[in-house]
Amino acid sequence: MKKLILASMLLAGFGAVAASAGTLDQVKQKGFLACGTNPGLPGFAIPDDKGVWSGLDVDLCRGIAAAIFKDASKVKFIPLTAKDRFTALQSGEIDVLSRNGTWTQSREVELGLLFAGVNYYDGQGFMVRKKLNIASAADLGGASVCVQQGTTTELNLSDYFRSHGGVKYEPVVFATADEAIKAYDSGRCDSFTTDVSQLYGERLKLVNPEEHIVLPDIISKEPLGPAVRQGDDQWYNLVKWTHFAMINAEELGITKANVDQKLTAEQPNIRRLLGVEGDYGKGLGLDKDWAYQAIKAVGNYGEIFERNVGADSRLKIKRGLNNLWSNGGIQYAPPVR
Amino acid sequence: MTDTTTRIAPRVSPWNNPVIRGWIWQFVLLVALLVLTWSAVENAATNMASRGIPTGFDFWNRSAGFDINQTLIPFTNQSTYGQAFWVGLVNTLLVSVIAIVLATIIGFLVGVGRLSKNWIVARLATIYVETLRNIPLLLQLLFWYNAVLKPLPNPRDSLSLFGAIYINNRGLILPEWHWGQGADYVLIALCAGIVAAIVYTLRARRLQAATGQQSPVFFISLGLVVGLPLLVFAVMGAPLSLTVPQLRGFNFVGGIRVLPEFVALLLGLSLYTACFIAEIVRSGIQSVAHGQSEAAHALGVRQSLTLRLIVIPQAMRVIIPPLTNQYLNLIKNSSLAVFVGYPDLVQVFMGTVLNQTGAAVQVIAITMGIYLLISLLTSLGMGIYNQRMTLKER
Q: I need a surface site. Which of A53, A89, A334, B367 has the fewest CB within 10 A?
C-alpha cells in the first residue's frame, strides 16, 4: 500500500533528504516543483478532462513555480488523500503541501511542519437533505454523519457533539472525501460534514445538488494554507512571501493584465514588489522579479479567488472573511520592503 | 628440558578448521546485520527528532478526541489512542473470525457441490468459483457495499420483521436482550447439558468399539445441549426480556445494530475466500483414491457415511495446509475495510490515529507487528490441528 511505501521512504530517505542541500536547490535541480494537492476538489484542486489542474491551491503552486523558474508550468501536482498528505511532505516526496489543510498547533509542533500562511479562511459545516427540514446543526442529535478520515473535521465533529451535552451521533468514516460523499448520496448518512468551502464543491458532485443544503452553523475555525517541512527557513520564506505577494498585489491594484504597465508605476510599494527598486528576491534565493513572475502567471489573490471559488466559478462563494482587510475581510499581508 | 617430538597429528591452524571458520563467518554476518539494523533505526530516529517528528510512544496514553461507530469495548472520544487501537483490533478480529467460519462452511458446500453428480449443482458451483475468484476483492467489496446499501430504505420506511427486527440503510437493528432473575440456572443447565453430552458420546464410542452396537448420539446430545436449558428456561418463567428498538429522530434507539459496512465486508471476504476453499476441498477429496469409496460401498456403507467417515478424514490431510493459507489471506484482506468505511485496525489506528499523532513509523510498525502476530497464532493453531489429523501409523 501507499502508506507502506511512504513509511519505508521515511526510514530510508531521511538521511539523504536531511543531510543534503536546501529544498530550493533540490527543486531547481529537479527542474520542477512537486506540489501535493487534493485529488479532486472543485475550486481548490481538480484536474479537467485534459488533465490540466485548476483551483485556489493549484494556483498558489503555479505562482511559486513561476517565481522560481519564471515558468508556471514547471510544477508537478501530486494528488494525496488526507490520510497520506503529511507523511508525503515529511518524507520529502513533495516540496510543498497545498491541499486545503488546516493550520493547527499540533500539526506544526508534532508533525514537524510549518504553515506558510492562510490561503482561505474556512470553517466546518454540515450538509443535509432539504426534506429533513433541519434549520441548525443542533438538531442533528442521533444522526449518522459521513466524514473523511484523518482530518480535523473528525475531531471537530466529536467536539461539537460533546460540547452540546454529549448528544449521540454516529460517525461513518471513509478514507477519501469521494467515498464519504457517495455514501451520503446513497442515504447511508443524514449529514455530510467538512469545511464549508468543500461542502459547496462536493455538492456539485451529487446526483441532485438542489436537494441538499449547507446548514448555517460554522462549528470550527479552519484556516487553510500551504505547509512546508521544518528546518529550511529559506524555502519557508519563499512559499510564505509568494502568498503575501499575491495579497499585496491585490491591495496595490496589480492584476495579471496590468502587471506590465505597473512596472513603470511611480508608487514605491509597487516598484519594490515588482522588483523595479531594490532586490527583495535575493534573500529568497530568487531573482528580483520573483513577484512579477508570480503575478504575471496567476494574477493577484482576488483574481485567483474569483476565478476558482468566487463569482466567476460554479461555486459562487462570497469573499467574506477572505476579503482584504481594507474591504472588511481578514486577508492581510505584511509589506515588501 | 626434554624434547618431545612425538606428534600424533599435524596441528591445523584454526583458520583452516572448517568448523571454526564457519562460526567466524556466522559471527561476522550477525554483527554486520546488527550494525545495519542499528544504524537504520538510529538514522531514522535522529532525523525524525531533528524534524520535530515524534519518535516515542507517548501518544499511546493521550486522549483521542474522535468517535468510532462500532465499539465492542467501551470507547468515548475521551478515551486514549491506545484504547482506539484495541477497539480497531477487536473489530478486525470480529470480522475475520466470523468470515473464516462462513467461508469455511460455504467453501466446503461448494467444493463438495462441484463434485456432485447432480448436473445443475455441479455447474452452479463451477460458475460461482470461476466468477468470484477472478474478480479483484476490492471491487467485490465495493459492489457488496453498494448492493447492500442502495436498495435499502431510509430509517423512516424501515422493513420490519415481527415488529422487533428492522432493516434500513443504517443497518440491521435487532432487539437487545437482558437476562432476568434465574438466568444463572439456565446457564448452569447449559453447562451440565454439554458435559453430559460429552460423557454420553464417549460411552457410546466405547460401547461401539466393544460390541459394535450404535447409539443415537446426535439426538441425545441435541436434547441435552438444547433441550435441557430450554426446559429450565421454561420452568424459571422465561427470565429474558427484550428491548425492542424504537424509531426516534433520525434512527432507532435501543437494540443492537449490525452496520451495513460490516455486512458488506463480511460478505465480500467470506464469498471470495470460499471460492479458494472450495477448490482446496475439491482437490482434497479427489486426492483420496477412488478405491476407498468403492471399498466402503462394497461393504454396504451409505454414500453420506462414506463421505463423512472415509473420504473427508483422509482428504483433510491434504486440505488443512492450503486452508491455513486461505485463513491468513482472509485476515490480511480484512484490512481493505477502510474502503467500505468499516472501523477495523487499519482504518482506526493506521488511518485516524496515525494522522492525528503523526507517529507514522511507530504506528505502522505496531500494525505490521499485530498482523504478523495474528497470522502466526492462526498458523500455530492450524499446525496443531494438522498434526492431530495426520496419518497415525500404527
A: A334
Q: How confident is the model at residue A21, as a pLDDT?
A: 64
Q: Which residues touch B347 (CB under 8 Å, ≥6 apart)?
A: A149, A173, A175, B88, B337, B338, B341
CA–CA distances in Å: residue B115 to residues B15, B23, B120, B376: 64, 55, 11, 33
CATH homologous superfamily for the domain A124-220: Periplasmic binding protein-like II (3.40.190.10)
For position B4, what pLDDT does the model report?
Answer: 54
- A2-121+223-327 classified as CATH 3.40.190.10: yes
Cα distance from A187 to chain B (closest Cα, Å)?
Answer: 7
Which residues in chain B have their CB less than 8 angstroms from residue A188's CB?
Answer: 149, 169-170, 260
Contact state of B355 with A149 under an 8 Å Cβ cutoff: yes
Across the interface, whether the CB atoms of B354 and A83 are under 8 A apart is answered yes
Q: Looking at the predicted structure, is the pLDDT value of residue B257 above 80?
A: yes
A79: left (phi over 0), alpha (psi -120 to 50) or beta: beta
> What's the half-sphere exposure (Cβ side, CA atoms, 13 Å) at B244?
7
* Length of chain A as a residue count: 337
Q: Do B339 and A179 touch (CB under 8 A)?
A: yes
- List the domains of chain B with CATH numbers: 47-157+261-291+315-379 (1.10.3720.10)
The answer to whether B170 contacts A188, with C-beta atoms less than 8 Å apart, is yes
- The answer to whether the Cβ–Cβ distance between B52 and A158 falls below 8 Å is no
> Nearest CA of chain B to the CA of A84: how many Å?
8
Give me the pLDDT at residue A291, please. Answer: 95
Nearest to A213 by CA among A315, A107, A151, A135: A135
Q: Where are the alpha helices (DSSP H) in A125-232?
A: 152-163, 177-185, 196-203
Q: Which residues on B lie below 8 Å from A229 (Cβ)?
A: 51
Quote the pLDDT of residue A165: 75
Query: Domain ranges in chain A?
Result: 2-121+223-327, 124-220
For the segment A199-241, what is each residue's pLDDT rounded down to a tens digit? 988 888 888 888 999 888 888 999 999 999 998 999 999 999 9
pLDDT recorded at residue B176: 78
For chain A, the 3-state helix, strand and coil shares in percent, each to the nearest 5, are 45, 20, 40
A172 contact residues in B (CB cutoff 8 A): 69, 261, 341
Q: Which of B77, B249, B339 sits opposite A175 (nearest CB)?
A: B339
- Residues in a beta bridge with B173: B166, B257
Q: Do A179 and B169 touch (CB under 8 A)?
A: no
Residue of B nearest to A155 (CA): B66
Beta bridge partners of A120: A224
Q: Is the CB of residue A212 less than 8 Å from the CB of residue A184?
A: no
Identify from A181, A188, A190 which residue to disrupt to test chain B contact, counting B C-beta atoms within 10 A and taking the largest count.
A188
| A–B CB contacts, 8 A cutoff, strictly below | 142
Tell me which chain A residues have a C-beta less than 8 angstroms from the C-beta of B58: none
Give pLDDT tens digits for B292-335. 989 999 999 988 888 888 888 889 888 999 999 999 999 999 99
Sorted by sequence, the CB contacts under 8 Å of residue B275 that are 6+ apart come out as: B107, B110, B128, B129, B132, B133
Burial grade of B304 (CB within 10 A; 0-12, 13-18, 19 or more): exposed
For this complex, say whether ipTM is above 0.90.
no
Binary contact (A172, B69; C-beta < 8 A): yes
Beta carbons of A246 and A300 less than 8 angstroms apart:
yes
Q: Which residues of chain A have pLDDT under 50?
A: 1, 12-20
Residue of A11, A83, A180 with shortest CB distance to B355: A83
Q: What is the mean pLDDT of residues B176-185?
A: 77
pLDDT at A13: 46
